[in-house]
Write a structure and sequence with these properties.
By secondary structure, the protein is α+β, with helices and mostly antiparallel strands. It has one domain (2-135): Nucleoside diphosphate kinase-like domain (Alpha-Beta Plaits, 2-Layer Sandwich), CATH 3.30.70. The protein is built from seven helices and four strands, in the order E-H-H-E-H-H-E-H-H-E-H. It has a four-stranded antiparallel β-sheet. Bound molecules: adenosine-3',5'-cyclic-monophosphate (CMP). Adenosine-3',5'-cyclic-monophosphate binds next to loops. Residues 53, 58, 62, 92, 110-111, 113, 116 line the site of adenosine-3',5'-cyclic-monophosphate (CMP).
C-alpha cells in the first residue's frame, strides 16, 4: 500500500557531500520525493522529534550533533515506504549495518549514521506533522 515516510539526511551526510548519493538511492529504488528542504534543526524541534529519546544517556550529544549544521528533511512516498526505507538505510550502528545499505556502505558510527527514517506508519504521521505541517493529514 502506498504510504509516506519522513527522512532526514543528517548533518554528517550534508557535511560529507552525500545528499546526492542518498537521494539517488531512494529514487533508484522507485520511491518518490514529495517534499525536500535544507534547514538547521533547532533544539525545540530536536526535543519534539526525538521525544522518545530525551531521557537517554546518548541524547545530549545526539541533540548537539543534529542541531550542529544543516540537514535535509524529505517526505518520501511509495509502496510500503516506511519499511522499504528502513531496509535501505540499514541498522542504526553503521559499523554493524549490512553492506549494500546506506549506513552499511557509508557510515562507521552509531550516532553519525547519515540518515533518519520513521520507524512505523504512526511515527511517520507524527514526524511529517512536525517537519512539514502543510503536508499533515
Ligand atoms: P535515528 O534513526 O535518527 O534515531 C535515533 C538516533 O539516536 C539514531 O538514529 C542515532 O543517531 C542515535 N543513537 C541511537 N542509539 C545510539 C547510541 N547507543 N549511541 C549514540 N547514538 C545513538
Amino acid at each position: 500500500m502506498a504510504e509516506r515516510t519522513l527522512v532526514l539526511i543528517k548533518p554528517d551526510a550534508v557535511r560529507r557531500g552525500l545528499i546526492g548519493e542518498i537521494v539517488a538511492r531512494l529514487e533508484r529504488k522507485g520511491l518518490t520525493i514529495d517534499a525536500m528542504t535544507l534547514r538547521t534543526m533547532d533544539v525545540t524541534l530536536a526535543d519534539q522529534h526525538y521525544a522518545e529519546h530525551v531521557e537517554r544517556d546518548f541524547y545530549p550529544p545526539l541533540r548537539e550533533f543534529m542541531t550542529g549544521g544543516p540537514l535535509v528533511s524529505l517526505i518520501v512516498s511509495g509502496d510500503e515506504a516506511v519499511s522499504v526505507v528502513r531496509t535501505l538505510i540499514g541498522a542504526t550502528d553503521g559499523r554493524k549495518a549490512a553492506p549494500g545499505s546506506i549506513r552499511g556502505d557509508l557510515s562507521l558510527s552509531n550516532r553519525e549514521n547519515l540518515v533518519h527514517a520513521s520507524d512505523s506508519p504512526d511515527s511517520a504521521k507524527r514526524e511529517i506533522a512536525l517537519w512539514f505541517p502543510d503536508f499533515a493529514n
